[in-house]
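Project channel, design review

CF: Before we commit to the Auraticoccus cholistanensis constructs, I'd like one complete example in the thread so the newer folks can see what an input/output pair looks like. Taking SIS domain-containing protein.
RD: sounds good, go ahead.
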Amino acid sequence: MAAKQTATSQNWDASTSVVSRIQHALPEMSAAMAKIARFLLEHPRTPLQYSIVELADETGTSAATVTRFCRMLGFAGYVPFRVAVASDVGRDSAAAWQSDIGGEFRPEDSPQTVLSTLISAHTRSLQQTASQLDLELLELVARRISGCRHFDIYGVGGSALMAKELEARLYRIGINCHHWGELHAGLTSAAVQDADCVALAISNTGRTESTIQMLQQARAAGALTIALTNNPSSPAAAAADLTITTSAFGRFLQPDDLAAKHVQLLVIDLLYLLIAQQNYSRATSTLAATALAVSPHRRAPRAVHRPPAAERRTVGVDHPTRAQPDHRAG
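CF: and here is what came back for SIS domain-containing protein:
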């Protein structure tokens, strides 16, 4: 067994994680070392808090067994083993940051740096999207939606928020529409569309399977299908008759950044206004009716009363937010 353990320890690559080493060596370990291995697979960060004696006590083994365990994994002892665990934790944290936050933002950045970077990302995305929009295509889409029997909007996850926002706006100007974020309900609606209907799929990546399936079903039923996506070569674009392409600057927040939402909102807002233009009379009358319906539930604005300058109290030095009493005679 000892010879086998030594041979195993000589085959490790320096980049191999501690967990991978443990998983690979576990079948060759003695019963005592296997207890340490199984404990560390469940609690991989324990060596960062435990001394060698504490780890031995926790696993019902001895310090000598822990040392042999470390050597079997290619480490000279417990101290370099702990360093390797710390390095793995650091790599995992950095990878998670890069994947979920993005390489343009660092943990030590000041709030002003973060704000400036965000403004740059969002502004660039909006400018790029505006420069590449096909306005003739958008005008055609607006005409078809304005005159259609029903308008379906598909979006899952973050895109569901965009779909719901578009539905709320269009319904107020008289468009018969509904948004769907759940596959079965969306497929049911898509199946009863026809040539007098329009269906729009919203997906930044264009690879959301549920959204693609709903759009495909609507297209098979005869509806005019449109994809709103950042990826014109995506499966969602391939499933659509028409594609509206946005441009979200990809080096910033990942994987679902707000810059992508802002360019989607830009297109949604533009589409809403173009549709409203198609039937100005209907849009204005329905907007007035809906505004009247909710007006009793809104508080009326109140004018702020400011007394004449002669009646205003001077602000005390000791209590700058509290007016001081006026002790002047008369």
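RD: helpful, thanks. The chain has two domains: 2-98, 116-286.
CF: DSSP finds 14 helices and five strands in the chain.
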